[in-house]
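A.,

Following up on our hallway conversation. C-alpha cells first:
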C-alpha cells in the first residue's frame, strides 16, 4: 500500500472515529421497554433517541434468553386481575393449573363464580412475554391494551411489567411474593415469574467504519456491559407506599375508653403495624388537640393522644375539617404548635390563607411528595354554638375552603415541584353512600390539575372509588377511630398506595371495623361484605 493510500485510510478512520463521538443512537421499543432501559441507562452518557423499528436501529424487546441479542437483565412479571376480583394470591401449582386449562373458574380459587379469561399478547415483541398454554379469550398488542382489557372484565387474567401498572388492575401475590409491593431486591430473589429485556443490535457493514457508526457501537456496547448483566434485576426503585385512613376523633367515648384502659395508644394498637410499614402515613384528624380555647361545638382531644398518633407511625394529618374550630382559633393555633413540637406535619390550615394553601412538600425515597387539604364550608357543614370565622384570610387563621380555583391553582403549582401530589378533601353529606355532584366536580378538578390521589373524609360511611386515567378518587374512607353507633359508621377502609415517579401504580384496601372504640382488621364474611359494598358503589362511578 502506498504512503498516500495509507494516509487516506487513516484519515477515513479518524473521520469515522470523531464522527462517532457525536452520532445519535436510535433505539426502537414500546414505552414500557424504553422506561426500563432509561431507568438503568440514563441518556446523559449517549445521545440516543427513541424511534421506529428500522434496519439501523437497536431493538428492545422482551424474551426468554434464547432470543437473539444481548440479555440486559431480568424483569419481574406481574400477574394482574381486575381490581375488584376478590382473589389476591396464587401459588405456582394453581397458576399452572389455570394455564393448563384445568382450573377455569375463579370460584375454584376462592373468587366469584366467573370464568377465568386469559388475555395474551400478540406481535413479535410480546409473543414471548408469557407462555400461556390455554387459548386466550382476548389477544392484545401492547401493555396499555392489556390494562384496558383487564380493567374492563372482572374475570380477566393478564400480565404486565412494572412501568405499565395502573391502579385499575391488581397484582396477584405469587408464591407469597408480590413484586409490586416489595421494598428490596432481596425479596424478589425467589419470585418465580420473569422475562428478559433483550437488546438486538443492527447489522454492521464495512462502510460503517467510515461513518462513525461502528466506533459508536463499540463505545455503546462497552457502556452497556457496565450497566447491565443477564442476571441483573431490572426492577426500578422500591415504590413509595402511602398508608391512609379515614376520620380520627379522639374525644367523647374514645377518650373515656382509652383512659379506662390506661393507654393513650389504645385506639391504634391493632392497626399500627399497617401504618408503620409504610413510607408515609396520613389521616384526617377530626378535632383540635389542645387544652386551650372555649367550647363552641363538640370535640377537643387531650394532647396526650399525640402519643398514640406517633406510636402508630402517622407522619402527616389534615386539619381541614368541620370540627377543627370547635374550640375556636386559640385551640387551632395551639394544635398547630403541638404538632410542630412533635414533628407531626399538618395540612389544610394555617395562620393565614397564604400559609394554609402552601401545603407540605417532602423529599422521600428519591421523590418529592406534595400534600394539600381542603374543606367544604357553609351552613349545615361548619357550625358552632355562636358565629365565628372558619376560612383562613390574609390576617386570620383557619381552613382552606374547597374552591375549584384554589384546588386548580394549588395543585398546578405543587405539581411543578413534586413528583406526586396527594389531596385530602373534607366534603359531601354525612351517612350518604353516594358522592354528591359537588364531590365529583372537585375530585375531577383535582385530577385534571395533576393530583395523583384524592382522599375523601366527612361522610362517616364508606363511599366508592373512581379511577381516572392517571389518578384515583377515594370519595370517603369512612371512620377510622370514632364512637358513632350505627353499624355503617363502625366500618372504614385503610388505603395503601404504591407509587413511583410516574404516579400511582397500585392500591390496596384493608377493611376495618370499630369495636370498643378501636379499629380492627375485618376478616371473613364481614370483610367480604364491606368490599362488596365498596365495589357496588364504585361500579356506578366508573361506567
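Then the amino acids I'd put at each of the 543 positions:
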Amino acid at each position: 500500500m502506498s504512503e498516500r493510500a495509507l494516509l487516506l485510510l487513516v484519515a477515513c478512520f479518524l473521520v469515522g472515529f470523531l464522527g462517532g463521538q457525536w452520532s445519535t443512537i436510535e433505539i426502537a421499543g414500546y414505552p414500557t421497554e424504553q422506561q426500563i432501559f432509561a431507568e438503568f441507562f440514563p441518556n446523559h452518557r449517549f445521545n440516543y433517541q427513541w424511534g421506529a423499528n428500522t434496519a439501523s436501529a437497536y431493538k428492545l424487546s422482551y424474551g426468554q434468553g434464547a432470543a437473539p441479542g444481548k440479555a440486559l437483565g431480568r424483569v419481574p412479571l406481574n400477574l394482574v386481575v381486575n381490581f375488584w376480583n376478590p382473589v389476591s394470591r396464587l401459588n405456582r401449582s394453581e397458576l399452572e393449573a389455570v394455564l393448563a386449562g384445568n382450573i377455569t373458574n375463579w370460584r375454584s380459587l376462592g373468587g366469584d363464580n366467573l370464568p377465568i379469561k386469559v388475555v395474551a399478547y400478540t406481535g413479535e415483541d410480546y409473543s414471548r412475554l408469557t407462555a400461556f398454554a390455554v387459548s386466550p379469550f382476548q389477544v392484545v398488542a401492547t401493555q396499555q391494551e392489556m390494562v384496558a382489557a383487564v380493567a374492563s372484565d372482572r374475570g380477566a387474567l393478564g400480565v404486565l411489567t412494572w412501568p405499565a401498572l395502573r391502579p385499575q388492575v391488581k397484582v396477584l401475590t405469587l408464591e407469597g411474593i408480590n413484586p409490586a409491593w416489595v421494598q428490596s431486591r432481596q425479596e424478589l430473589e425467589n419470585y418465580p415469574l420473569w422475562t428478559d429485556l433483550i437488546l438486538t443490535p443492527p447489522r454492521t457493514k464495512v462502510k460503517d467504519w467510515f461513518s462513525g457508526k461502528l466506533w459508536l457501537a463499540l463505545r455503546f456496547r462497552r457502556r452497556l456491559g457496565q450497566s447491565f448483566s443477564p442476571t441483573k434485576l431490572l426492577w426500578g426503585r422500591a415504590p413509595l407506599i402511602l398508608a391512609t385512613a379515614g376520620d380520627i376523633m379522639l374525644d367523647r367515648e374514645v377518650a373515656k375508653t382509652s383512659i379506662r384502659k390506661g393507654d393513650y395508644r389504645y385506639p391504634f394498637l391493632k392497626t399500627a403495624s399497617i401504618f408503620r410499614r409504610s413510607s408515609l402515613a396520613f389521616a384526617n384528624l377530626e378535632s383540635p388537640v389542645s387544652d386551650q380555647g372555649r367550647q363552641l361545638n363538640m370535640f377537643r382531644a387531650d394532647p396526650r393522644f399525640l402519643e398514640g398518633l406517633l406510636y402508630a407511625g402517622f407522619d402527616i394529618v389534615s386539619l381541614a375539617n368541620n370540627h377543627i374550630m370547635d374550640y375556636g382559633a386559640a385551640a387551632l393555633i395551639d394544635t398547630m404548635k403541638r404538632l410542630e413540637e412533635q414533628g407531626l406535619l399538618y395540612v389544610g390550615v394555617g395562620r393565614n390563607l397564604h400559609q394554609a394553601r402552601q401545603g407540605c412538600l417532602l423529599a422521600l425515597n428519591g421523590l418529592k411528595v406534595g400534600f394539600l387539604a381542603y374543606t367544604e364550608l357553609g351552613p349545615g357543614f361548619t357550625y358552632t354554638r355562636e358565629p365565628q370565622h372558619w376560612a383562613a384570610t390574609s390576617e386570620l387563621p383557619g381552613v382552606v375552603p374547597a374552591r375549584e380555583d384554589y384546588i386548580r391553582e394549588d395543585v398546578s403549582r405543587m405539581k411543578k415541584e413534586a413528583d406526586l401530589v396527594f389531596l385530602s378533601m373534607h366534603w359531601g353529606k354525612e351517612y350518604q353512600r353516594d358522592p354528591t355532584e359537588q364531590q365529583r366536580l372537585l375530585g375531577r378538578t383535582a385530577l385534571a390539575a395533576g393530583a395523583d390521589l384524592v382522599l375523601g373524609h366527612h361522610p362517616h360511611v364508606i363511599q366508592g372509588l373512581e379511577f381516572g386515567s392517571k389518578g384515583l378518587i377515594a370519595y370517603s374512607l369512612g371512620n377510622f377511630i370514632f364512637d358513632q353507633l350505627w353499624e355503617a359508621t363502625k366500618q372504614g377502609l385503610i388505603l395503601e398506595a404504591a407509587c413511583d415517579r410516574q404516579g400511582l401504580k397500585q392500591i390496596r384496601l384493608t377493611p376495618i371495623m370499630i369495636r370498643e372504640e378501636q379499629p380492627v382488621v375485618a376478616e371473613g364474611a364481614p370483610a367480604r361484605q364491606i368490599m362488596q359494598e365498596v365495589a357496588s358503589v364504585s361500579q356506578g362511578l366508573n361506567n
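The chain has three domains: 3-68+201-227, 78-192, 240-541. Curious whether your intuition agrees with the design.

B.
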